[in-house]
Amino acid sequence: MKILHTVEFYHPSVGGMQEVVKQLSERLASFGHEVTVATALLPERSEAVVNGVTIEEFGVSGKLALGMTGEVERYRRFLTESNFDVITNFAAQQWATDAMISMLDGIRAVKILVPTGFSELNHPRFTEYFASMPRWMKQYDMNIFLSNNYRDINFARNNGVKNVMVIPNGASESEFSARPEIGIRARLGIPPDHFLVLHVGSHTGLKGHSEAIRIFSKASVSNATLLIVANDFGGGCGRTCSLRKTIFNAWPHRRTDGKRIVVTALSRAETVAAYQTADLFLFPSNIECSPLVLFECMASHTPFLTTDVGNSAEIVEWSGGGMLLPTRTDAKGRSWAHVPTSSKMLSERFCDRTGNDRLAESGYAAWRERFTWSRIARDYEALYKNFCRSGRP
């Protein structure tokens, strides 16, 4: 099959959506399909083909509700003139999907939408956009959701969209099944006997870094390190996190409790090594769809504590690999951990190493059975083949 995946950003850009599309695209290419990714032009991208996947770049930015600029018409011509069997749009509310949804009738290929959350569903500037969304979703051959109970799939059901199915996220067996070759504790100066609490998420200001620091600060733990692995793209919480880390580590009480915080950016290989050596994953994020990091915890035998954000509750139910922090949701749909109770939960995990092992083993077993990227890529392949054989559902 000739397959086109569209996504706002792609390799070498890093992020959750980039990782999802990269894992699926490279596996489908390894299965023998011709896979292309249409994405934004990046100056740092030096290769047009990466691991069997062809990358088509377009100088476009923006979103339909707020305005799109750049090579929008060239992108639209590419969509209509290229002879793809299947076109899958990953994530609504960004140009690579939005430039296509207004011209769905003119595209011959099988059309699939993976909405990934509808994060702006309640934003006033997106009112008209979401008023049209049910009509667009019905024009797709299939809408794939990452959860069976989240705002995007519930929106579809409430608006009479019938062509829906659930295919979850996952984690890479090629990355997580091998033993780590990187001694990440030694590299970062983390003592080998420290209880290592890990958080992975960029400095967007919405990944719960502030809450993680407050929870760790209040927790009754000793000889422990909170490691925050985060890329800093500017305009987020990078400077604030660095300042909070410095103040925390300089406090005189650190000489007696042995607690410390490390905030750093790591390579992907180093990040995987951090997962594999961590004792616990702490994820009080404010907004998610289906957090990849929780699947990566499962794959690395790492128990987790997470806010009830995105479909985290569903992932806990699927896997038994972690626990939900007490969470409130504000009017914008953002999730906030209750810090005092969350600190008590972290303290309990620190004391219950046997219980942590049970969580880790349960999560790992669930991942091996249901949530490897190879398994998930086969689900996408089966769906694509079914449409291509039958023409339409």
Provide structural commentary.
Strands 3-4-2-1-7-8-9-10 form an 8-stranded mixed beta sheet, sandwiched between helices. Strands 13-12-11-14-15-16 form a 6-stranded parallel beta sheet, sandwiched between helices. A two-stranded antiparallel sheet has the order 5-6. By secondary structure, it is of the alpha/beta class. The model has no long low-confidence stretch (mean pLDDT 95). Helices cover 42% and strands 20% of the residues. The chain has helices at 16-30, 72-81, 95-101, 127-139, 151-158, 173-176, 184-188, 209-218, 238-250, 254-257, 268-277, 292-299, 312-319, 339-351, 353-370, 373-390, and strands spanning 2-6, 34-40, 49-50, 53-58, 60-63, 67-70, 86-90, 110-114, 142-145, 164-166, 195-200, 224-229, 260-264, 280-283, 304-306, 322-324, 327-329, 335-337. The chain has 2 domains: 2-170 and 372-390, Rossmann fold (3-Layer(aba) Sandwich); 173-370, Glycogen Phosphorylase B (Rossmann fold, 3-Layer(aba) Sandwich). The protein contains 16 helices and 18 strands.
Q: Could you give the topology of this structure?
A:
Elements: E1 2-6, H1 16-30, E2 34-40, E3 49-50, E4 53-58, E5 60-63, E6 67-70, H2 72-81, E7 86-90, H3 95-101, E8 110-114, H4 127-139, E9 142-145, H5 151-158, E10 164-166, H6 173-176, H7 184-188, E11 195-200, H8 209-218, E12 224-229, H9 238-250, H10 254-257, E13 260-264, H11 268-277, E14 280-283, H12 292-299, E15 304-306, H13 312-319, E16 322-324, E17 327-329, E18 335-337, H14 339-351, H15 353-370, H16 373-390
Parallel strand pairs: 1-2, 1-7, 2-4, 7-8, 8-9, 9-10, 11-12, 11-14, 12-13, 14-15, 15-16
Antiparallel strand pairs: 3-4, 5-6, 17-18
Helix pairs in contact: 1-16, 2-3, 8-9, 8-14, 12-15
